[in-house]
Write a sequence for this structure.
């Protein structure tokens, strides 16, 4: 099940629509920004049917 979610690029700050796969539960994924083409790391918390939290990071930010 995919969910459309508004996100902001941590590089250029532009908003875009991300398509999040809710069936994966909590997971990480990397997608390129549709505007500036730089890699965005997504940290996604999901209960399988809805998004609880999405954080975006640049490739040089440390994720704990």
């Amino acid at each position: 099940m995919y969910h459309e979610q508004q996100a902001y690029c941590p590089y250029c700050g532009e908003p875009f629509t991300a398509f999040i796969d809710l069936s994966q539960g909590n997971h990480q994924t990397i997608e390129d920004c549709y505007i500036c083409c730089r890699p965005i790391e997504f940290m996604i918390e999901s209960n399988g049917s809805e998004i609880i939290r999405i954080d975006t990071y640049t490739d040089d930010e440390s994720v704990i």
